[in-house]
Structure formats: C-alpha cells, structure tokens
Amino acid sequence: MLTEPRRRAYLSAMQVVHWLPRAELPFAAPSRPELLLPVAPVEDIDFEVRPAPAANETPVSPQARSGERPKIEIPRPGSAPKPAAKPVEAEEQPAPPRPAPVPPPPPRFSLQLLRAGSCLLLVELTTGQPFQSRDPSYLLLKDMLRAAGLPDAPQIIGEPVRWPLLVRGNMDQGPEAARDFVQGFVQARLEDAPSTCLWLIGLPALRFAANADAEAYYQTLKLDGLGDAWALPGLELLMDEPQRKADVWKAMRQLMARWKSVE
Predict the structure, then answer these.
(1) What is the pLDDT of residues 175-221, one digit of tens each?
(2) Segments in 80-213 forming alpha helices (H)
(3) Backbone angles phi, psi at 85, to 5 degrees
(4) Residue 56 CA from chain centroid, whole number
(5) CB-hemisphere CA count at 13 Å for 166?
C-alpha cells in the first residue's frame, strides 16, 4: 500500500504532473475540483496568437489551462513491452542460371598449297589472295626454292584454303575444326602424290597443320599422316627481318639431301 508522499515521488519520477485515480486511493489527499472538469475536444481549442514581446518586456512562460491535462500513458505493473516484430526474411530466390560459355571466334587465315619437285609447300597468304608473278613474297619463295635445288616455278594445287569456310551458319569453325580440315586437305593431296618433305611456311601453316607455334621454326617435325615437315617463318616475316634468312639457310643445308636424293 502506497502512502501519499511515496505515490507523489513515483509520479514525479515519471514526470506526471496531473493525474486522476480510477478508484479512491487509501491515504490519498482529496482531489482538486478543477481537475474533475470535462476536457475540451481538441478541435474546439482556440490557439491564441500573442504578439511578440517588446525588447524591454520580459517574456512570460506559457501556463497550462486548468481544464487541460496531457495524456500520459503510465506503465502498469506486470505489463511488459511487446517485442518488435521481426522483419520477414525475403524468400531465397534461386540463383540465376549461368550463361553458356561463349565459343572462341573462328581463326582467320589463308593458306596456299604448292608442289616443287618432290616437296609440298603449305604457304601463308598474308593478303588472302593467290600469289602473283611479281609479288615480292612470291619472288622470295622462288629464291628459296632455287637455293634448295628445287624448281623455282612451283605448281599451285587447288584454290587457297580460306578460313572460316562459311560467313554464316551453325557449323563449328573453331580452332579444332580448322586443324582437322587443314590436316585432312594436305593428307588427301599426299595420297595423290607422296612428298619427301612438307614445307610449312608461316605461323598459320604451323598451327593448323602441325599443331605447333613459332618456337618450332627451322626444325623438322614428324607428323602423323603427313610425314616429315619443315617449319619456316612466313615470307612477310622473312622480308621484314632479313636476319632470319641465315637460320633458314643453315637448316636448309642439313635437309637438302632428302629431296635431292629423290631426283
């Protein structure tokens, strides 16, 4: 049972200025009559506009009207605040499907097959067009054949192999397909007429006929279905870097006996 001083101490601690009990409290002081007056509705309250105080006047603090009392919620014993509602977790969305891997673009190259004596030559066409009699690259090739002791007027075999084969369509034209096509093309020509040595001139000829790269320049390779092959830089590269011709001549002297013995 609370006494009046303790009750007022609790209300002061909760910053409650005016309050009315719902039932008669024991040991409580009698209520003031003005607190029992009905509270005016909010919409009927007129807000009085007061003029601003003059410079020499002391501002008067506003006083609460006797008939008004603020609405203050007093926590009751035994009542606990409701826990805040947990936010609804978003439903786990299925991971989007991974995009299919994009196939590499088809390689682009042009190769010309020629025959000089007992040798076949697979030569890179840097311009994509067949050799012309006055092309500097073709004149260099003729000089290389004369130095090797082979006819300097090689026979052109068929049209150039241009890759990709089709501009449109769904056919696989990637590197593996290009390698299979070039190797099959050369192998078919070797079945018509065998060769003592296959010259692979240019990086595309190396990549798609021998599955090799520039590190194989000036070396001889043994290829399944194609026999012995000789790896050479492209004609344009030999013209741009003339110092490579010495390496070509050095390797050529070691190989000349292969095709000269056939003649």
Answers:
(1) 999 999 999 999 999 999 999 999 999 999 999 999 999 999 999 99
(2) 136-147, 175-192, 203-209
(3) -65, 135
(4) 75
(5) 8
Which of 144, 121, 153, 114 shows the shortest CA–CA distance to 249? 144
Per DSSP, the chain holds a count of helices (H) and strands (E) of 6, 6
Q: Which two tokens stand for residue 244?
A: 């490579």
Write down how long the chain is: 263
> How far is residue 5's CA from residue 240's CA, in Å, rounded to a whole number?
110
Question: What is d(CA 190, CA 115) in angstroms, rounded to the nearest whole number?
Answer: 10
Within 13 Å, how many C-alpha atoms sit on residue 206's CB side?
A: 18
Burial environment of residue 186 by CB neighbours within 10 A (0 to 12, 13 to 18, 19 or more): buried
Mind listing the domains of the chain with CATH numbers? 4-39 (no CATH), 109-260 (3.40.470.10)
- Distance CA(22)–CA(37), nearest Å, equals 15
Decide if 218 contacts 209 (C-beta within 8 A).
no
Distance CA(207)–CA(124), nearest Å, equals 11
Predicted confidence (pLDDT) per residue in 18-54, tens digit? 666 777 766 666 666 666 666 666 554 454 545 555 5
> Token pair of 177, please?
């397909």
Specify the amino acid at residue 249: W
Work out the angle at residue 58's Cα, subtended by the Cα atoms of residues 55 and 64, and round it to the nearest 5 degrees.
130
The CA distance from 129 to 110, in Å, is 8
